[in-house]
Design goal:
The complex is a heterodimer. By secondary structure, chain A is α+β, with helices and mostly antiparallel strands. Chain A contains 14 helices and 33 strands. Chain A has an 8-stranded antiparallel beta sheet with strand order 11-10-16-7-8-15-12-13. The longest helix of chain A has 20 residues. In chain B, the strands form 3 sheets. Chain B has a 9-stranded mixed beta sheet with strand order 7-8-6-5-4-3-2-1-9, sandwiched between helices. In chain B, helix 1 runs parallel beside helix 2. The longest helix of chain B has 18 residues. Chain B is globular, with a radius of gyration of 21 Å. The chains are: A alpha+beta, B alpha/beta. At the A-B interface, helix 13 of A face helix 8, helix 9, strand 10, helix 11 and helix 12 of B. The structure holds guanosine-5'-diphosphate and iron/sulfur cluster.
């Protein structure tokens, strides 16, 4: 009889989660060393580069323990960013325990704590693992002490290992078997399986990753996705090896996949419960939430002629990312495009990078916006996430914007600058707690809009990377809002308009005019850039006309060189957007989204 | 408008990649190891190349000895080179024979010898007329030497072109006006006023990176360019190309003009570039690699490019726009003239249409590359 263990690894970035995962896969003999290709779990390029996991992957490791018994260890990978905290919570809800990985040369860090809390919330067994003990700079004693004092965990149970050399990896496997409880669950109960991920397969449609809590699921069953209220016939179930491994059934306690002719991942919801159509469970598993986009931006192909291929690429993209929503949109400046909604700013960035890299699209995205609520004088209520649809200001009775509770965990020494940053971003109602000596958790109520403009980068730079940030939506609050327009030589550039807090408008307007001045090349005539509210100009910058641009000598050898250079530059010019007769490079649209000092 | 010189015969260019010392701004493949042994070995190779390729070409009506510094070649060696040119190459009766000369190498004797070899036009590298500037540029002659050289050349009755540089770090407008006025008062037949381009990797580029020198801003460059135009045209010079001014139509640099009108030029020697109307190619980049190729019977050509019709059109646009004859409107696809960007350039006074040609205005000259970029983009050639 085979026993199961379901676990996750949680760690601060770079403490070695991916390396340890690879090592576990290797140690259980699933792959030969020679065709082992690094960090199998992190499959996307962007994840690799940024060292974060966006889409989780799961793998089942067969392991014969020292007691001679065969175990199946399901390693459930978790995404590593606040935008995906809901996905993390669902992955953790599918486990009985976690490995809490700490880099012996770095010690406990901000994110280690945040992760620990998440695991505690789910009552998981926590095994401290001290990694990188091979490093000369490893401070094992100090790290053990931190595990005891900072994390309140039993240092006696900590495992020492080096994911790099493989030392101690066997002990990690033994600890998983010994300390993490086997899954409970009742095969006789009606089926209840928790969906914690879904991926798209071009031949099979949505591949659901789930944890069976009770009951059993097998091919031929008619299953029901409770939140979606939809039923499908199961075609295949199985477990995750390096490829999918077909099984006869998945029973209570097991982790695996279900294929049921579901067309796209958008037809599934993470956190939803799978049950049987004929013998359904009364209540779904707890914790389901419908995740809603909170950040919106319009996306356009750089070259308007590319719209058809661009639209096609978006369709494909959506197959694998159910959390993005799209709607057709168009702009006078940028042509045909889509208005998109995202779970957060990182989600937006991931979207942008994947479209450019994997789908080979050159795109322009407009300034991200939150969703504002307006109560009009006639009593009508409007939800606006696109400045283009900003209502006639004379008819607005009240405006509201979404607020978040921002939690920032930092070493105490950064408290001053972090407070200043939050207050400058309209943070209010601040609270502090000291989860461990030397560390502060600062919470603020803040408008979400203040966080989507340049907040992460600022926070990272003022805390030298030690600040971790998390947020919850806490509803709308009344706000004095205006629409800021940007004019180039008197022509309004719709793609640059913003809805902003009135007292902020001037600062933003000045900033944008400055950035555009730097990014728009000098042209045949003077260019005036203005920020305006209604008809009133509140900021201005000027780009003087181009006066000198010619190679002094152009003889024999200069000619070929010059032609190539000209062709390259002419190509660049062709890609620029024409606003009236002003040419605006794509990077100008991007630059206004960042403040200058980074 | 003077006649468009479309019917020129090909030109012959011979490159002499040696200098006595290296100028601080120079990124040219030239060598300051200029002992006679090396020069002589190099000339052997040049003569051999000439012998091989020149006979296949039509009669040349311009010969240009450029560098580097051709004037450091000793008189007997030079004579040897010229003799072999005369022997192997068909030359027109009215040949323009230009030699680039460093002011430090000019004497009555040398000029007399050069003219006896057939040189009828001297391009004199004066660059500046103040010794501080000459030092900054790393030139090995003084301004007094330059003025004396001008006198000697003019006395000998040889056509004189003077090269000047403007826009070097620290140069003021009044420095430049003084230089221009002084040079113009000498009434040279031709003036080339090149705005300084600091090539990467040169001594001056390093001085700029380290902050020791501060380069001119775009607006300063533009003003200097404008001043050049105003001062020289007021004195009757014809501004016929971005950097070139002729005392009258008969005294334009015939050889130089071939490059802008895409007239074939055969380049002989290291780093020399050739164009036969359809293809462009160039020779091994320095004296050593060049003579090794020639001595071992290999072709010194390192790079050949065949131009397609679009390449040719692009060339005729950006080269043409550099001259006051511009380029014919039919180089643009029908309708391109109404493109917003091209219209904006017309409105901004950068270009105009005249006798079926598009030309840059005086203001447009200063931004000719930007004009070409816009036209090429608007015409859909990229
Ligand atoms: N010396 C040493 N380096 C390690 C060890 N484990 C991971 N690393 C290195 O630490 C870096 C971050 O590891 P990675 O697994 O990508 O971290 P993740 O961000 O937590 O997934 C990589 O350069 C690894 O090679 C270890 O045990 N010893
Ligand atoms: S003389 Fe001309 S080629 Fe020689 S170093 Fe000076 S600038 Fe360069």
């Amino acid at each position: 009889m085979i026993e199961y263990r379901n676990f996750s690894i949680i760690a601060h970035i770079d403490h070695g989660k991916s390396t340890l995962s690879d090592r576990l896969i290797q140690a259980t003999g699933m792959v030969q060393d020679k065709d082992f290709h690094d960090q199998l779990l992190d499959s996307m390029d962007i994840e690799r580069e940024r060292g974060i996991t966006i889409k989780s992957n799961t793998i089942c490791l067969p392991y014969t323990a020292r007691d001679g018994k065969l175990y199946r260890l399901n390693l459930i990978d978790t995404p590593g960013h606040v935008d995906f905290s809901y996905e993390v919570s669902r992955a953790l809800a599918s486990c009985e325990g976690v490995l809490l990985l700490v880099d012996a040369s770095q010690g406990v860090e901000a994110q280690t704590l945040a992760n620990l809390y998440a695991a505690m919330e789910h009552n998981l067994e926590i095994i401290p693992v001290i990694n990188k003990i091979d490093l000369p700079s490893a401070d094992v004693i100090g790290t053990l002490a931190q595990i005891e004092t900072d994390l309140g965990l039993d240092p006696e149970r900590a495992i020492m290992c080096s994911a790099k050399t493989g030392q101690g990896v066997d002990d990690v496997l033994e600890a998983i078997v010994r300390d993490i409880p086997p899954p409970k669950g009742d095969l006789e109960q009606p089926l209840a399986a928790l969906i914690f991920d879904a991926n798209y397969d071009p031949y099979r449609g949505a591949i659901i990753s789930c944890r069976v809590v009770d009951g059993i699921v097998k091919p031929g069953d008619i299953i029901r996705l409770m939140a979606m209220a939809a039923s499908y016939k199961v075609e295949e179930v199985g477990t995750f090896g390096l490829a999918r491994l077909k099984q006869k059934s998945l029973g209570a306690g097991e982790v695996g996949y279900v294929i049921a002719g579901i067309k796209t991942v958008s037809d599934t919801r993470i956190g939803d419960t799978i049950t049987l159509h004929q013998a359904p469970r009364h209540h779904p598993l707890p914790g389901f939430q419908e995740v809603k986009p909170v950040v919106f931006s319009s996306v356009y192909p750089i070259d308007a002629d590319d719209f058809p291929t661009f639209a096609e690429a978006l369709e494909k993209y959506k197959l694998n990312d159910a959390s993005v929503i799209f709607q057709r949109d168009s702009s006078l400046a940028l042509g045909q495009g889509f208005r998109c909604g995202f779970l957060g700013l990182l989600h937006l960035e991931v979207f942008q990078e994947r479209l450019e890299r994997e789908y080979d699209q050159s795109i322009i995205m407009t300034a991200p916006s939150v969703q504002y609520r307006f109560i009009m004088k006639d009593g009508q209520e409007l939800l606006i996430d696109n400045p283009y649809y900003y209502p006639d200001p004379s008819k607005i009775e009240h405006g509201f914007e979404p607020y978040i509770k921002a939690s920032i965990l930092i070493p105490e020494r950064y408290m001053g600058p972090v407070m200043t940053l939050c207050i400058s971003r309209r943070g209010e109602n601040s609270r502090f707690s000291y989860p461990t000596p030397g560390r502060v958790e600062v919470t603020f109520d803040m408008p979400l809009a203040e966080v989507i403009f340049d907040f992460y980068d600022k926070l990272k730079s003022i805390t030298q990377g030690y600040g971790s940030f998390d947020y919850d939506m806490i509803g709308n609050r009344a706000s004095d809002l205006v629409k800021l327009d940007i004019l180039v030589n008197g022509e309004k550039v719709d793609a640059l308009s913003l809805i902003v807090y009135r007292d902020r408008a001037r600062d933003r307007a000045v900033q944008i005019c400055d950035r555009l001045k730097d990014e728009i090349p000098r042209q045949m005539f003077k260019i005036a850039i203005q920020g305006a509210i209604g008809g009133k100009i509140i900021s201005r910058s000027t780009i003087s006309a181009l006066r000198k641009d010619v190679l002094a000598k152009c003889y024999g050898g200069d000619i070929t060189r010059k032609r190539k250079l000209l062709e390259k530059q002419a190509k660049g010019k062709k890609k620029m957007k024409m606003i009236g007769s002003v040419m605006i490079p794509q990077k100008a649209f991007v630059a206004v989204l960042k403040s200058k000092d980074d | 408008m003077i006649d468009i010189p479309e019917s020129f015969a090909p030109g012959l260019y011979i490159h002499i990649p040696f200098c006595r010392s290296r100028c601080r701004y120079c990124g040219f493949p030239t060598s300051d190891q200029s002992d006679t042994g090396r020069i002589s070995r190099y000339l052997d190779a040049v003569i051999m190349e000439l012998h091989g390729v020149a006979p296949g070409w039509n009669r040349f009506d311009s010969l240009y000895l450029g560098g580097g510094t051709p004037s450091i070649v000793s008189l007997p060696e030079l004579e040897r080179l010229v003799e072999s040119v005369n022997r192997h190459v068909k030359l027109a009766m009215n040949l323009e024979f230009t030699m680039e000369v460093n002011a430090g190498d000019v004497s009555r004797e040398s000029v007399a010898a050069w003219t006896s070899f057939g040189v009828n036009r001297i391009s004199l590298g004066v660059q500046a007329l103040d010794d501080r500037a000459l030092h900054l540029l790393g030139r090995r002659h003084t301004s007094a030497q330059a003025l004396e050289a001008v006198a000697i050349i003019q006395e000998a009755g040889v056509a004189l072109g003077i090269d000047l540089i403007f826009g070097y770090p620290g140069q003021t407008q009044s420095d430049w006006v003084r230089t221009l006025d002084h040079v113009a008062s000498l009434h040279p037949d031709h003036l080339s006023c090149y705005q300084m381009t600091v090539e990467t990797g040169t001594e001056m580029a390093q001085q700029i990176t380290s902050g020791e020198l501060i380069p001119a801003t775009q607006d300063q460059e533009a003003s200097l360019f404008r001043i050049t135009h105003d001062h020289l045209t007021r004195r009757g010079y014809d501004h016929y190309e971005i950097s070139n001014y002729a005392a009258d139509a008969g005294r334009m640099a015939r050889h130089n003009t071939k490059y802008w009108f895409r007239i074939p030029v055969l380049g002989i020697g290291a780093a020399a570039h050739s164009f036969d109307g359809r293809r462009r190619w160039c020779n091994a980049p320095n004296a050593e690699s060049y003579w090794l190729d020639i001595e071992s019977g290999r072709s010194p050509i390192v790079n050949t490019e065949s131009l397609n019709t679009v390449d040719e059109t692009i060339e005729s646009i950006f080269l043409g726009i550099r001259t006051r004859w511009g380029f014919p409107c039919d180089r643009l696809p029908p309708g391109a003239g109404s493109d917003g960007r091209i219209r904006a350039m017309r409105d901004a006074g950068w270009i105009r249409e005249d006798h079926g040609r598009i030309t840059a205005t005086d203001e447009g000259f200063a931004v000719a590359d930007a004009i070409a970029e816009v036209i090429i983009a608007a015409a859909g050639y990229v």
